[in-house]
């Protein structure tokens, strides 16, 4: 199966930065940008799979430059690589100063989505192929990122098995030795 060109998955989102979108440093909230990133990446994944998609992981979000209230923000996303049912998406975030026209790549991100059929089962996706230099660079380096994702996911599973699911205010069960995590109800702040 040769696949389809990456360009068919390209998706764009543009927004103006308003006073309610910024933090105390007058820059765009990171969480707001992350929501934009997940949104546009999911559209690119759905354009390829033409199925329901779920975010399997946010592999990386790198904030390179702040985004100010005088800026607009443009996100471009496309699928860079596919597995059997998974899709790696790339998001490029461009900030543009609306007064000067100056543009910068403000952030980049990689996310992984999985395609699901109408019954919630994984479904195969069509492979993609690159046409531009930018697409080729991202497509060719994708297997390395996929291996890093696999290793990170295994490490996360191992860590999750170790972590406690008990809330600090719940009584300890017999055999628990989580002294450091226990809450001393008689302790005074600062002691």
Unreliable stretches: 179-191
Number of strands: 7
The side-by-side strand order for the widest beta sheet comes to: 2-4-5-6-3
Q: How much helix, percentage-wise, in residues?
A: 25-40%
Alpha carbon gap, first and last residue? 66 Å
CATH topology: Thiol Ester Dehydrase, Chain A
In short:
This protein has 191 residues and is an alpha+beta fold.
Protein topology:
Elements: E1 4-5, E2 11-16, H1 30-49, E3 52-63, E4 71-82, E5 86-97, E6 103-116, E7 128-129, H2 133-162
Parallel strand pairs: 1-7
Antiparallel strand pairs: 2-4, 3-6, 4-5, 5-6
Defining key terms:
single chain, 191 residues, alpha+beta, Thiol Ester Dehydrase, Chain A, 5-stranded antiparallel beta sheet, two-stranded parallel sheet, 7 strands, globular, disordered C terminus
Task: Kindly describe this structure.
With 191 residues, the chain is of the alpha+beta class. The protein has a single domain, classed as Roll (Thiol Ester Dehydrase, Chain A). The protein has helices spanning 30-49, 133-162; strands at residues 4-5, 11-16, 52-63, 71-82, 86-97, 103-116, 128-129. The strands form two sheets. A five-stranded antiparallel sheet has the order 2-4-5-6-3. A two-stranded parallel sheet has the order 1-7. The longest helix is centred in the last third of the chain and has 30 residues, at 133-162.
């Amino acid at each position: 199966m040769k696949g389809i060109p990456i360009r068919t998955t390209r998706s764009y989102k543009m927004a103006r930065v308003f006073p309610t979108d910024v933090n105390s440093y007058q820059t765009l909230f990171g969480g707001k940008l992350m929501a934009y990133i997940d949104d546009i990446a999911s559209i690119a994944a759905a354009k390829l799979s033409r199925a329901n998609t779920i975010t399997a992981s946010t592999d990386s979000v790198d904030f390179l430059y702040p985004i100010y209230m005088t800026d607009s923000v443009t996100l471009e996303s496309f699928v860079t690589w596919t597995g059997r049912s998974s899709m790696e998406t790339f998001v490029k975030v461009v900030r543009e100063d609306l007064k000067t026209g100056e543009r910068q790549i403000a952030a980049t991100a990689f996310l992984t989505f999985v395609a699901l059929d109408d019954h919630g089962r994984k479904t195969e996706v069509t492979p993609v192929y690159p046409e531009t230099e930018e697409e080729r660079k991202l497509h060719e380096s994708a297997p390395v990122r996929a291996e890093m994702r696999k290793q990170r996911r295994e490490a996360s599973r191992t860590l999750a098995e170790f972590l406690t699911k008990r809330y600090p205010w719940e009584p300890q069960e017999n055999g628990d030795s989580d002294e450091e995590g226990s809450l001393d109800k008689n302790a005074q702040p600062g002691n």
